[in-house]
Amino acid sequence: MSLIAIIDDDPDIIEATSLVLNAKGYEVVTANNPVDGYTIIKEKKPDLIILDVMMDEPDDGFFLAQKLRREKIDIPILMYTSVSKAVGFEFGEGELVPVNDFVEKPISPEQLVQKVENLLI
Amino acid sequence: MITDKPRVLIVDDEKGLRLGTKRLLENEDYIVETAENGTEGIIKGTEKEFDLAIIDLKMPDIEGLEVLKEIKKHRPHTICFIATAFASYDTAIEATRLGAYSYIPKPFSPEELLFQLEKGYKQRILLLETENLKREREEQLVELSHEKSRLSAIINTINNGVLVINKTGELVYFNNSAVRLFNLHDVEMGDLILEKLPNEVSELFKTLINESGEKSYSIQLEIKPNRELIVEAFFERITGEDGDLRGVVIAIRNISEFKKIELVRNQFVSMVAHELKTPISAVLGYLRIILDETVNITEEKEEEYQARSIIRLEGLLTLVNDLLDISRMELGTKQREIVELDLKEVINNTLVFLEFDLKKKGIDVNKDFDNGDLLINADNDEITRLFTNLLSNAIKYNKENGLLNIIIDKSKNYIKTQIIDSGIGLKPEEKDKLFQQFFRAKNSKTRGISGTGLGLSIVKQIVETYDGKIEVESEFGKGTTFNIYLPINK
User: Fold this and answer.
1) ipTM computed for the complex
2) How many domains does chain B have?
């Protein structure tokens, strides 16, 4: 069964997302900041990362994604962005932000599962 | 002046001729004056303007030619005739040179005289009309040149740029602002300007030149990067009387400041949207799980999620109220009831309100208040809000079992309140952003502390409303001190 890492500073989002994914049979590991997030990725080697772009700093998720890619860790990343416009980043495919897909919060469980399934194929 | 009746001056030393001619002309509706010698002729002929003058060539005192010269000098439009019995070729030439209109040989018949005078009078009228026309034209030219220099002075001093380009792309007119706003260098009238202008401007010029119709255009351009200079340029075609295109006028406006305000506003709206969306996402997440039949949760969990949802919604409500307060304060529509307030009382009441939080975290409060009256004139709600925000921060960002010192001093004009906590403290870069809307110091130590990021920006606004001042001192890891100065009530 696939392992999914959820990295988000909002405990309620982690809780709700974990539950939905658990119900679909995925295993979940979580972290509420980029430093712990990096650690669990290195230790647990998940099959997919769900990463919030805005944690301690408005672009923490963005830098974590870049760091992972620089270290040749190419686990698919699904980025949570309720903030793309808020912080002035314009995300385009392959442009600076090395992630595989974006989702805008809030997301329905069906959409989330579908995005996850697409990335895990 | 041209009057209805021609005015004639007869200068002749021969009395019979003088009077005879006078009578003859008066019968023909002339107004006649006479002079009996050259001296009198000069006086009369120069002191006022006659339409016509008949001057005898030979007079005992002054020669007719001298009289002619003097009259012509002062009254150049008086038509002068020289009357003489001794017409010589030389005197004829001299008389013409001095401005005589014609010769009247003596003796003359009445018909001959009247014919000559009529001719002369017509000439005089023509002369005056020409003169009038000439003067009018000169006046118009002077006016026009004034108008032109006035216009160019006006155009040169306005802040907006003006640039006129003819249809072959030559610069026909420009003002200083145009040079500045398009960041041009070394431009002169007649330059082929298109290659010196920003690309978008040249392209739009070509579009305008090549299409018919009356469409006008405007574009916004970033002339200097990083929003240092943004302009809006308006394009209007100039057509001749035949409707054919002659060129294009470009008016340029500096919109950098406007764009800055727009950016700040957009950023604020985005921040608000984000802050609203975060709790909504969390609550939606929980509600969907509770309703989702494919996800099994215990009744205990369900209750926990409901409780969490309520907490998030309460946070959302606080945020919306903070936003409304900020908006009211910024718009100046906040209703204030200015009364005499005792700061000791306000702070003690606030501490009672926060007692639960103080006890929960085990915070020890020390108060050191000045013994005198500590009175200010202000709205109770606002001042309570000010100290509630500051004191609740001093609790939230404090250590477990930390300290909270509150010191109130008064000077001549101000009451100084110090709120000193033994909490997390601020990093220097956090201190700079502290009063910004939505700024929250985020690090491993602040994680889990809830807030809207608006509390201190509201505090600052309230302090400034009352002409006060707020300062912050802080050391990361040791604690933070806020100094609040409010004008004393005298």
Assistant:
1) 0.79
2) 4
